[in-house]
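Intended use. Records like the one below are meant for learning the mapping from a protein sequence to its folded structure. Do not use them to infer anything beyond what is encoded.
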Amino acid sequence: MRPRISAKAIIIENGRLLAIHIREGNASWYILPGGGQKHGESLMEALRRECREELGAEIEPGRVRFIRDYIGRHHEFAATDGEKHQVEIMFECRLATPLAPEAATHPDGGQLGTEWVPLKELEARGFYPKVLARLLRKRDLAATPVYLGDVN
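Structure written out for the chain above:
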């Protein structure tokens, strides 16, 4: 099986990250908006479509900030994600239109909504990938690598 390619949006305003709040059963966590690239779709098209679907907003993508592999069998969710391999390309973005969750056309399964989460609270709120929660708190992102490896 081939890796799934995913485009994600890092949207930060006033020290807060725009995140998708997910709940499955009793578990709750936060992730970046965005998702899988479809055949014949550019990464930018995928990113814009996914943000319309999940946020109900248009975004303006910027530069690639981080890339990560997620090979499920190597991480804490191996029992349920063991066959999953995803490559996520995370772009610095900004909102081009106001956030309108009621206009979201195709929210993720289990998506409760969107929240502006203070960067200092990402780890406590259960944000994934965990490594990104730590990196986004740094003041000098230029010193961080673009490729993060197989992390969660």
